[in-house]
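Human: Not sure, check this?
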Amino acid sequence: MSLIPVVLFIALGYGAGRMGWVKAASVRDLSNIVFLILTPALLFHTMSTVRVQELNLQTIAVYFSAAGLLFVTTLLLQGFTTLGAARALANCFSNNIMIGVPLVGMVFGQEGLVTLFTIVSVHALILMTSATIVFELAVMHQQQGAQGGARSYRGMAITVVRALKNGIIHPIPLPIICGLLFAQTGLKMPEVIDTSLQMLAQALGPIALMLVGITLFFSAVGRYWLPASRIAVVKLLLHPVLLLAIGWMWGLRGLPLVVLATAASLPVGANVFLFTQRYEVGREEVTASIAVSTSLALVTIPLILLGLAQLLQTA
């Protein structure tokens, strides 16, 4: 099953930490390599092939309506802080690449992959860019709260503009925007650059997951079992149920709806962990939630697929 390599990579990272091959002081440097080099390479390469006019807007609207509703609701319940933003992102950010692509390909074939790739092509653009702006606003909100100063409308406007600027000139949104703009030119990427980007992009998944395992070893995860389990339950069960409800109300039926629900039922993606490293908040909790949700998904995903198979037959 496609979940096995994910568990294996996390276990390899944990083993590397346990054996002393990676020191705690090196975790930050490894995180910078993933966040500042490998992730931008994957994002630019992915977006450089996206043609806006070819996207299925209905499936995009359904998927990101569910994710957005879950994100905003979590943020309202948790409070407008970087920790609240980390939990909100974990609740709605699926591991669509390492788990989703092989799983959907195996269960639903090429037709299912077409629907999934529509989501994957703008997944980072929508969720990661939005999350970056929310994180930047939350940082400034917390700083202003700590200073105890009154906030005027002008001051709030300046804060929003500054957050938007920081959210765009950033290792995640900037390569997304540049890649999307390049795609619209119709130009062909030089082979040497395209090959280099592909190699960097392919390295992201395994290294990011091993980094999760390394952090898992250096973190007191046992203390975070309960909040990690809450995130896992929301991600694995509430997210797909919410998506099914929204998709059904919007008139989406058949295989596209089933594939979207499958994507929503996937465990927490490793990119959420990169945000916690970048903003130094909730690292242990999110690390634990990735491990817990991936382990529980070995049970929940087969059950959800059985239910979705029945839905597909009756649709």
In short: The chain has one domain: 3-314. DSSP finds twelve helices and no strands in the chain. Residues 3-314 form a domain with the Na+/H+ antiporter like fold fold (CATH 1.20.1530.20).
